[in-house]
Structure formats: structure tokens, C-alpha cells
Amino acid sequence: AQSVTQLDSQVPVFEEAPVELRCNYSSSVSVYLFWYVQYPNQGLQLLLKYLSGSTLVKGINGFEAEFNKSQTSFHLRKPSVHISDTAEYFCAVKSNFGNEKLTFGTGTRLTIIP
Amino acid sequence: EAQVTQNPRYLITVTGKKLTVTCSQNMNHEYMSWYRQDPGLGLRQIYYSMNVEVTDKGDVPEGYKVSRKEKRNFPLILESPSPNQTSLYFCASSRRLADTDTQYFGPGTRLTVL
Fold first, then answer.
1. What pLDDT does residue B100 have?
2. In Å, how far is A59's CA from the nearest CA of chain B?
3. How far apart are CA A14 and CA B34, in angstroms?
């Protein structure tokens, strides 16, 4: 079984400040890791994913995430946020053995303060 | 344009009145899934379908039914809705179960059961 913990339910950040959204996972096998973004009144969109290789993954809209196996973390970062980044962000995990479904975290609501 | 559509987008109903939320995709995807999103709980899978006439329970299937008679459609049925089914519902599809990280999500259906 696998699980995902997003430690912060809400994160307020001033515009142009950096942000880090935290995600920790638990799994008995190797995993793939993902971040999704949900803009107001929309469905989820894939932001970035880690499958293998470099532990630093770059995604859309200037976001990046770093896979840390020893700390079982996959934190999402952006060096300078914009008003348009206001959204809910979901971390998700999936076993890389066989056909396993995605398991989502509880989400972090990012609010950008002008 | 590749898309997943859901109808209705908003629905207010009363306890016990049967309802159906439709979901349709135009990408010839084999895998389709229903999620509910609740504050503090993230996305939880209700049912999924690997292909036509193949459906299975997700994490929270109680009180829901689905069918997959055609590849493009995957309706969610609430035979006797109750207030605890008030939620935001998302339909999603992907080419196969193995591709669930690249699921396409519908715009969501906000259901209120009084």
C-alpha cells in the first residue's frame, strides 16, 4: 500500500516570493511521483512527474520538484510566484510495479497575496 | 479537441431522488474513473473501468453505481442520494490504467444533496 501526506493544507505567499509545497510519501516498493494543479472551477492538470533519472524535475509554469528517496519527499518549489499561481496543488504517488492506480494527497491551497 | 465532458456541472437534489451524472470522452481511452473531492480529504476514487463492460470499485464505492456500455461513456449513478454524498465529482480518462498519471480530467460536477 502507498500513501501521500501533504503537510500544509493552506499556504499564503506574497507575490514574487518563493514557495515550497511539501509532500511526503510512504510505499513498500519503488514509486512514481506527481504534482497536479487545480485552478478554480477546473479539473486537475499534470504539473510535473518523476519517473526515474535526475531527481530534480522541471514542470510547467516555472515549477520544479526534487525527489529525495532517503527522506521520502517530493517537495514542489517555485522561485517567484504570481497571482496566476493561485490554485490547489495535489501530490500523487503510483507504484512502478504493475498497473497500480494513483493515490492522491489531501491537497495544498496556495494563495498569492498581492 | 481532446476533452472529458461532464453533465450537469451543478446539481442540487433531495435525499433519495435517483440521479445520474454523465461523463464522456472523445479520445478513445480505455480507462475511465470517477473521483470525489472533499475538503481535507483530497481526491478519492469511487469506481473505475478498464474497458467496456469492465468496472471495479475504488476506495469509496458505497452508495454509487457505474456502467460502461460504450467506450466513450461512463455514467455515475446515485440510486438514493444522501447528504454525505454532497461533494465535487470528477470524471477522468486515460489511454490505459498504466497511463493514469496522464489522465484527462473533466471540469467537475458540484452536487448538493439536501
1. 66
2. 14
3. 35
Instruction: Report the chain A residue with the minimal C-alpha distance to residue B108.
Output: A43
| B5, B56, B101: best to mutate for the A interface, most A CBs within 10 A | B101
pLDDT higher than threshold 90 for residue A1: no
Instruction: Inspect the interface and report whether the beta carbons of A46 and B92 lie closer than 8 Å.
Output: no
DSSP string of A12-81, one letter each residue: EEETTS-EEE--EEEESS-EEEEEEEE-TTS-EEEEEEE-SS-SEEE-GGG-EEEEETTTTEEEEEESS-
Exposure string (b/e) for A82-97, b if CB count within 10 Å is 16 or more? eeebbbbbbbbbbbee
What's the pLDDT tens digit per position in B9-57?
999 999 999 999 999 999 999 999 999 999 888 899 999 999 999 999 9
The residue count for chain B: 114
Q: Which set of grid coordinates corresponds to residue B68?
A: 460502461
3-state secondary structure of B103: coil
Contact B107 A34 (CB under 8 A): no
Check pLDDT > 90 for residue A105.
yes
Per-residue pLDDT reduced to its tens digit, B62-79: 999 999 999 999 999 999
Phi, psi angle pair for A84, to nearest 5°:
-70, -10
